[in-house]
Design brief:
By secondary structure, this protein is α/β, with parallel strands linked by helices. The protein is 39% helix and 22% strand. The strands form six sheets. Strands 15-16-17-14-13-19-20 form a seven-stranded mixed beta sheet, with helices on both faces. Strands 10-9-8-11-12-22 form a six-stranded mixed beta sheet, sandwiched between helices. Strands 1-5-4 form a three-stranded mixed beta sheet, covered by helices on one side. It starts with a strand and ends in an 11-residue tail after the last helix.
Amino acid sequence: MGEVKTLKYFVNGQWKESKTTKYTDAFDPSTGEVIAKVPCCTPDEVEEAVAAAKAAFPSWSATPVIKRVQILYKLRDLLIEHMDELTMLVAKENGKNWEEAQGDVLKAKEGTEQAISAPSLMMGESLMDASSGFDTVLYRMPLGVFAGIVPFNFPAMIPMGWMTPMCIACGNTIVLKAASFTPQSSMRIAELYKEAGLPDGVINIVTCTRNEAEILLTHEDVKGITFVGSTSVGKHIYSTAAATGKRVQALCEAKNHALVLKDAPVKRVAAGIINSTFGCAGERCMALPVVVVQEEIADALVAEIVAQAKKLKVGPAYDKTTNLGPVINQAHKDSVVKWIETGIAEGAKVVLDGRDVVVEGFENGFYLGPTILDHVTPEMSVGEREIFGPVLCIKRVKDFEEGLAVMNANPFANGSVIFTQNGRYAREFARHTDGGMIGINVGIPVPVGMFPFNGNKLSFIGDLHCLGKDGFRFYTENKVVTTRWFDEETGESTAVNTWDGTI
């Protein structure tokens, strides 16, 4: 058994030992071994993190945006320099295979690169003589302290790609509540920020339970909350934090569907589905857990998916030949197995069963093989609720119209995909699907960082999405300044109308 670290929390540029008596075990999912004891920071320690962020805000927000992003330039170079180290860290604490773990870090780099655009994207608007002699300028200003509440599934990309870079580039400071199962990647990147020259207190990291995190939702010094996680928690965060006047973006659950029409090339579509469904062990909100297929090709497509899925190598995350790594921990594995059993009880047909997979030499790891349930119907919960594991549900429909209706009946609308060579159907799909991120022959339609991560319906709660121009708007507030200068004549006048000349 390797070294078990007792982790600290990061406040005002320093690592500090928590005074807590409560710790969470963080595992290496590939071996099942505990690799870290993660503190449940006390309420006072969460308060300390907010106070540090508040104290750092005046000088950081007064730092010209050009100088702020110079630190992000240095951070980007450090991410590249430490790519293998960070990839191994993500693989070891999360269980993604090597390529997926590297992608997690690359997405943190992409978010950093997008934030470097702050000097342009924070620019406001202006109009001389908006009214006669009156000039109006709109400025985008930082707000203060933000809190980021982070899930386990993308330990580099979400806290250090989606949240931190844009937040601090806009002149704010941040308190991250890192995921207790996977905190070490963001902690290491915080050290790289410090190496890049970021002032103390701009980034602070705590680990805790929902009880302590509740402090962030109502704290008078926290101006906004960015959250990724379950819809039930997202609803609570939104209602609680928004009630105190905070701005909130809550990225929530998904049950993404793909519609496969009879003209789609079966082998290539199957390969795309395999990648989308079983990548990251299905533990991502842009996974593809449901395929809706026209009856004419359903048997052929299912046979091809099964054949290709059987070739996937299940194994430890840091073996570069692994295709499908483990899920995050035993409790989550048990949850996914229970969902498979629920699908069977509801009447779905198991055409590939990954529940009994064993990896030689890693028998205690949290492994599940690819699992495929066919003949899933709309009334089955297994095809409607988020499972967050390597499980694919097949729904069969007679035509495009029925398929679209089946997809839009789902309460979630993160991603939505169609596989077809028919341009008319592709266009109609893009117009009428409820999904906020749409793929046409693209199985994982995650846009690059200059566009927003654009979930709809119960997959997102709020007004402004993360990344893209939405992200810059979320992390800034507008100030509109109207100016008038008096000439000799107007300077002596006392005649001022109701609107002071602005209309």
